[in-house]
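User: Can you predict the 3D structure for this chain?
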Amino acid sequence: MLKLFSAQQVILILAFVVLATSAAISWTIDLFGAENQTLFGHWRMVGFAVFGIFLAVTHPIVWRWFWSVPGVGRILSTQIVPDLTGFWKFTVQSNYPIIAALKAERGLVQSDTGLSEYVFIGFLRQGWLTSDFEVFGHDGSILDSSDTLLVEFRPGPNKRKKKIFWFYEQTNKLVDKGDSGTFQGASELEIQRPTLITGLTWSNRNWENGGNTAGPIRLERLEKAPLKGMSDDALSERAVKLYREIEAAVA
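Assistant: Here is the predicted structure, written as structure tokens:
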């Protein structure tokens, strides 16, 4: 998430932290009468303190706690980015039926040819240095696994709506003859609000034969993750339960 800030903003933030820490250490030394403190010793203490502050603030438990404070969290969510860590319902639409129709008819697609739709449960791990999407397949899905290669948060043209760029590798369970079982994909997403992310996704799936797919993607948050985090087994079990709840609601 650091790329949400410009280089100038990062420098200003670091300068403020260093100067504020230096002033706090000087005040503490004066308070306790430690007159023998050398200049080298002072700045060594500043360095250790700033490093400690950096480690603390970038830890998920610490920064997510600040985002959970009423009032403060709203300002941070608006000015920087919301805390998006948690489970999301992924609704992905694909133009694969249109591609299949083109191949079958070798001509124009009928106007009633629509997009296929798939629903998955995904988990977003959000961090200052690295972020990650984990998408869970289910018994009835074509998805076998999805490995995130890159997730980046960037400012969007609308200052109040931030962008997420997601690059991933997907492996499918069922592969038609002449199709690709493993391929790479990318998504350009926009954070509409803390509970909704929308965008477009596309892939290089079977691109040699014109099978590369694309379509809208919609992420709706189902629940936040606890501050203390969850184990991999707990994530998988929770994802299965959430998907079954969605199925039951539709039935």
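The CA atoms of residues 171 and 182 lie 4 Å apart. The helical segments are 7-32, 39-58, 60-68, 72-79, 96-105, 232-250.
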